[in-house]
Amino acid sequence: MYLISLGAGLLVGAIYGLMGVRSPAPPAVALIGLLGMLIGEQAVPAAKHLIQQLIH
Fold this sequence. Notes:
With 56 residues, the chain is an all-alpha fold. The chain has one domain (2-55). It is 84% helix and 0% strand. The protein contains 2 helices and no strands. The protein has helices at residues 2-19, 27-55.
């Protein structure tokens, strides 16, 4: 999964480079956004588990 993600990112980066365009977001902003997505993705199951524990 990680290698596929890395490969897709490298491919898109190469296409951007060949087209002579820059990434739509500055690298730091993009990384912060990805970090937020990862945290949000992990927070939902954790919150569901916590709610289940509180209910029972």
